[in-house]
Amino acid sequence: MTNINEIWDIETIFAGGSQSADFATFMSALGTDLQTAATADPLPDLAGEASQNAWITTLKNVYGLNARLQQASSFIGCLTSQNVEDEDARQLEMELAPMRATLGTIWTRLSNQMVEQDDTQWDGLLQTDALSGVAFHLNEQRGNAKLKMDVGRETLVTELETNGYSAWGQLYNYIVGEKSVQFQEQTMSLGQLQNTFMDAPDRETRQTAFTLFEESWAELAQPCAMALNNLAGFRLTSYKHRGWESFLQEPLQMNRLTADTLLTMMDVIDQKVSQLKPFLDARAKLIGVDQLAWYDTWAPVGESSQSYSYGEAADLVIEKTGVINPDIAKFCQTAVDNRWIEAEFRAGKRAGAYCTSIPLNKEPRIFMTYNGSFSGLLTLAHELGHGYHGWVMRDLPTGAKRYTMSVAETASTLSELLVKNAVLDGITDDRERMAILGTSLNDAVSYLMNLPARFRFEKAFYEARRQRPLSVGALSEMMENAQKQAYKESLSQYHPLFWASKLHFYLTRVPFYNFPYTFGYLFSNGVYNAYVGGEGDGFVAGYKALLQDTGRMTTEQLAHKHLGVDLTQPEFWESAVDRVLADVGPFVALAEKA
């Protein structure tokens, strides 16, 4: 498969790109239907067949609006990703924000009406053939509504989010986007400068780039602190009026997790993460320093000459994922053949990689910029894993497809692990092996040190923000303390202004956008443990069922049903962390020989 098309086909979604007449018609109809649903009369109380039918009709309509809005959002995302200069696509993106707010208001009103229904009548509604498949989601909506304010105040909060709260995140994006610096006779964005201090093989270059990076963020720190303080203030005020004592309640609800599970996972990491220190020490020795600085922690180690054409990479992913289940290989082949992947290495594309669902077509689209490297190979495997997750759920009702970030990395990381380990098994050159092991352990540092540091910081910040806004100095001190604790004092220099430079702290739609990454990483390693543990055909059958259930049960229920484990206890997390740390010894041994 050496000559395959690396440009995706999105014409089958809507022909004509950002100027598509079909898409314009679609958006117009969607806007009209959203407004109609938003202004509809309240549903009758459940009391008989007629009222039950009214509820069924309305709920099916709103789920349809969900799917249509996702279709529009994904298509526009494809347009803006493939060409960052597409002004028409940017305008379309702006049109989505009020539509999302309208749909949110519809769900807020419906959820409050759900609370008002008699429990017996409500249970009867969910037992109907029309809604039994989305019973979990509807019960979740009803349960969450019971924890919120009345519909009038919640609607007001939603409207204020659109025109006030969200503006702090938009302001942050504008401030950062406008900032540029001069480095090595080049004009760079802060993102490009960050890539330089993360990826440059020369340490002096990394150090100089990082110093400029910190100086640049120091210039932006005051408006960033204003944005962060006001984002948190809005959230905490909303939580207070809802009667929520814990600022973790919203992110835990969003991830269908209990606090016991989250804190157990974090405790296990804290107890075991010191085992990564020999890796960091070995890396320091390789570059000739006593301790790594922050800007050294992503630097490449070893030498990898492995290169794969896009066709070769696709063949390898198809072959190695087929080992666990031929159904995965069949999906990957279909994705490549049908051009569901945008992989071409060209200018004008946005950075990064993602997989998005096109629900009305029952297809995914995968975006990346493939560069022929081992890292590019793993990215392809990772995103195809996401695609497979959505593929096995494609025929489920819309309300049963929404899985949380906590389990979103299950299929993707498992596919990545399969491909990485298969490649590693075939390499005999020590420096090649060290490079691959180093890539894997760099991930471990990110998930077990960097992300927990963000969690520590955000917890401490929200605790303090309840009393008063925090100054730039206080935020930087809090960030550095969190990093020192999470990295176990392993570094010679930290990144105090990380609270300003990390976009994730400024995402208004997702609070605590940190621990779900670590959770998903370790959960997928736990699933991999089940695979290599010899469950054979039973695992193959159970894996697909696990993925299909990710949208219709809590994370704890999912793990208990399909893996037979209790996530509130440390054993599962200990085995997952141990799997990650198993690469430390082999890497250190290779580093000592280098």
How many β-strand stretches? 5
Quaternary organization: single chain
Largest sheet descriptor:
3 strands, mixed
Structural classification: mainly alpha
Q: Give the percentage of residues in beta strands.
A: under 5%
Tally of helical runs: 24
Instruction: Report, as a whole number of angstroms, the end-to-end distance.
Output: 37 Å
SSE order, one letter for each helix or strand: HHHHHHEEHHHHHHHEEEHHHHHHHHHHH
- Percent helix, as a range, is 55-70%
The value of Rg in angstroms is 24 Å
Ranges with pLDDT <50 over ≥5 residues?
none
Q: How would you describe this protein?
A:
This protein folds into 4 domains: 17-168, Butyryl-CoA Dehydrogenase, subunit A, domain 3 (Up-down Bundle); 184-260 and 274-303 and 430-515, no CATH class; 310-407, no CATH class; 516-583, no CATH class. The longest helix is centred in the middle third of the chain and has 40 residues, at 203-242. The protein is built from 24 helices and 5 strands. Helix content is 66%, strand content 3%. The mean pLDDT is 92. It is globular, with a radius of gyration of 24 Å. With 594 residues, the protein is mainly alpha-helical. The strands form 2 sheets. It has a 3-stranded mixed β-sheet with strand order 3-5-4, with helices on both faces. It has a two-stranded antiparallel sheet with strand order 1-2.
